[in-house]
Amino acid sequence: MKTSTRQVGDATIVDVVGQIDLHSSSDLRKVLQETLRGKTAARVVVNLGRVDYIDSSGVAALVEGLKTSMGLKIRFVLCGLGPAVKELLKLTQLLSVFQVCESEEQALRA
Amino acid sequence: MNLSLKLELPSDPELLRVIRSAVKEFAAVTGFSEDDCRSITVAVDEALTNIIRHAYQNRHGEPIDLVCRRCDEGLEFILTDRGQPVDPAKLHGRPLADVRPGGLGMHIIQKIMDQVEYGQVPEGNRLRLMKYWKIRQEGKS
Predict the structure, then answer these.
(1) Among A1, A11, A24, A71, fewest CB within 10 Å belongs to which?
(2) Cα A88 to Cα B90: distance, rounded to the nearest angstrom
(3) Shortest CA gap A84–chain B (Å)
C-alpha cells in the first residue's frame, strides 16, 4: 500500500493505492492521524479508488480517522470505493457511518 | 471430487497478500463465484490476522498450518497454530452498534462463512471454516 497527500482548496486529499491489511494499516492510520491533527484542512478526503483490498484493521484505521475528525470538527469524506471496500463496510455496518461519495469531485463539494 | 492444498506459513503480515492470492485462486478453481471467492478470501485473511495478533501476540515467524479442502459439501479451511488459546468470549464478535476501531474480525468471518468452529488440539488452536455450495445454502432457510 502507498499513500500520498495533496491540497485542493481547503481540502487535503489522501490518495491510497494497493492493499490495506495487517501489514499496511498502521501506515494508513499514521497518515490519517497526521493529516487530521495537522489542522491545515477544513476537509479531509480519502480517495480509495485504487484500493483493491481492505481488511478489518484497515477499516479500524478509517473509523479512528472519522472519530478524530469529529473531535476536531473536520469533515472526513471517503470516495471512489471499489467493490472490496464497499462490501467490507457494508458487512461491518459502517457504510452509513461514513460520508461516502462516488467521485473525488463530489467529495470536494459534499 | 476432493481437492486439497496444505500451506505451512510463518506468522508474518507481509505474506498475507501472498496467502490471499492462493486462497482466492483455490476458491476459484473449486467453482465458487467471483463474489464468493472474494468474500471467502476476506474470511481466511481475517482468521490469519487474528492468529498473528492474538494467538502469537504479533510475533513473526511462528508456525501456522492452513489446509484448504474442496469436499462434497463445499470448501473447508482448517487453520492450526501453536499460540495462546483464544478467549471464548471473543469468538462471537462485538456489537456493531458500538462504532469504534477494532474487534471486527470475528464478526466478518461469521458473516461470510457458514460454519465456524474453534477448538483445542494437541498441536494448539484449531479453527475450521466451512463455506457450503450455494445449492445447499439455498436449501437452508
Answers:
(1) A71
(2) 20
(3) 8
